[in-house]
Amino acid sequence: MLLLAGTAVAGLLLLLLLLPALVARAAPYLVADAVAFASTAWVALRCERRLARRPPVTLLDIFRAHASRQPRRLLLRFQDELYTYGDVERRSSRVARALARHLGLRRGQTVAVFLPNCPTYVWTWLALAKLGCAMACLNSNARGRALRHALAAAKAAVMLASPDLRAAVEEVLPDLRQDGIRVFYLSAESPTPGVEALGPGIEAASDEPLPAHHRADVTPNSKAIYIFTSGTTGLPKAAVITEKKLLLVANMCRLCGVRAEDVVYTPLPLYHSAALLIGLGGCLEVGATCVLRAKFSASQFWDDCRRYNVTVIQYVGEVMRYLCNAPKRPGERDHSVRLAVGNGLRAEVWKEFLQRFGPVTIREFYGATEGNAGFINYTGKIGAVGRANVFLKKFAFFELIRYNVERDEPIRDERGFCIPVRPGEPGLLVIKITKTTPFHGYAGDPEKTEKKVLRNVLVKGDVFFNSGDLLMMDHEKFLYFQDRVGDTFRWKGENVATTEVEGTLATVDFIQEINVYGVSVPGCEGRCGMAAVRLKPGASFEGESLYAHAKECLPSYAAPRFVRLQEALEITGTFKQCKGNLVREGFDPNVIKDPLFFLDEAKKSYVPLSPDVYADILEKRLKL
């Protein structure tokens, strides 16, 4: 009897010892899932409690608390300039007082900021926040019609600009005056007749804290910022960022592991949500230091990281690929960067980056500026944008649904409801719109706002945000970005994801950059694949090599039928590739001056596309 009892105890002890290993094998990500859930829940609860106070504690208040407790702590570095939390607090108060006095700004108004990356951007944002004014972040590359459209969408009555953008200002100045929009330069002098420079007034203003009445009416749902979409397929849309969303997004850095002692390198434009809300906003939230660069430079990137003792870098779009494409230099692993935070990193570039630059923890995330939820890849799974763990849908219920690429709409069943996809199958990401995950839409554009809303998705009466993105979930519940629904096209009865084709062909040794899109061919259904290519310096186009690689690595329907060589590919300020003009221009050699090639199956190569060959394609004498 005692022997049996001893055996039972020994067995129980053995089971307890083996339990962690058994759990790890059965559910290998359970601990990471639980930690991520707990962190997200704590951040969300903390934000709710802050905003529930009267008055609510916003990101501005958190910055001011840091400035009060640690005024000498370094907040901002720009070139050789250094600014502490106390410096920025005083400068922003001075700007706020000058704007209130000279411009008569009142709380609730919207002010457009048209500045390049510079320290002035930072204290101008905080100054407007102190006045209770919303800031419209104009793309510094916007010109003419796009610039006027952005101002109108945000209903801005005032534009604060830099003399560096004088040509763009003067181009639209007569129209702005006609629209009743006042324009000022944030500089000591004005190069434009009739446009006042506010620099002298700002320098003469007091840097004492502003009275609280300026923000007396601020609530969690008050409009804080307008961030404009990149406009890759048309005019930019003004996404509404409320005080609550601003605070939540600023906590992304905290969730990714950024700490107060970190130095965060931000070479991205401040008019974009990644740099302003996550990078700079994240520093304001945790009390860290932000190193701001005027423009991204692949050749200067690591030199900057060493110079400023950077510990966290921000990336977006193609930035990491630019770094990997840069010529190799000695000491590339000689840096203090421990963490990279961003989105849009392709798996093959991810691997190359780690191999070349060292064991940097990468926190890839997914989220749209106007979206109502997102994901963070907290496990480091290469290529994934996040993970649909068992806890995630407690925060934000989402689904991947079947999508008809050709008709550009979700596929519905006989009851009229959308159909969830199976693991391994791409689907449109939709996120339920609720009180905790609201969708605020676009300012001044109710029609485009409504287009982002899907109704009666899974049950009658439900409402979801349409992300416009195709994602795929594998059997382990990791999520992978596939493509934008407007970028995916249908050819030979199959869906072609442009990002997958780009990722495959980007590894060809003579290709520096590639942009894949679909073009219409008379008499053919769907759209035919085409690639705009920029060659590496000193390289030449090798049609046979590209043909062999495409045939080996891509399904026949996905291999581009046409190739267009360009000296530079058109991109937005946040490195998103522009496809609209390329799609419209098509593949006509009589119009396009760039070298054109087409896939010739008989010659097993990409060969020059002449006007005669083009005519044969149109007359269906040449089969694609």
Automatic annotation (TrEMBL):
Which InterPro entries does UniProt cross-reference here?
AMP-bd_C, AMP-bd_C_sf, AMP-binding_CS, AMP-dep_synth/lig_dom, ANL_N_sf
Q: What class of enzyme is it?
A: ligase
- In this chain the AMP-binding enzyme C-terminal domain maps to 500-576
The molecule here is called: long-chain-fatty-acid--CoA ligase
In terms of Pfam families, this protein maps to: AMP-binding (PF00501), AMP-binding_C (PF13193)
The reaction(s) annotated as catalysed by this protein in its Swiss-Prot or TrEMBL entry are: tetracosanoate + ATP + CoA = tetracosanoyl-CoA + AMP + diphosphate; a very long-chain fatty acid + ATP + CoA = a very long-chain fatty acyl-CoA + AMP + diphosphate
The highest taxon in the source lineage is Eukaryota
User: What EC number is given for this enzyme?
Assistant: 6.2.1.3
Indicate the segments forming the AMP-dependent synthetase/ligase domain, all copies.
Answer: 63-377
Keywords annotated in UniProt: Fatty acid metabolism, Ligase, Lipid metabolism, Signal
Where in the sequence is the signal peptide annotated?
A: 1-26
PANTHER family from the xrefs? LONG-CHAIN FATTY ACID TRANSPORT PROTEIN (PTHR43107), LONG-CHAIN FATTY ACID TRANSPORT PROTEIN 2 (PTHR43107:SF4)
The family this protein is said to belong to: Belongs to the ATP-dependent AMP-binding enzyme family.
Membrane keyword on record: no
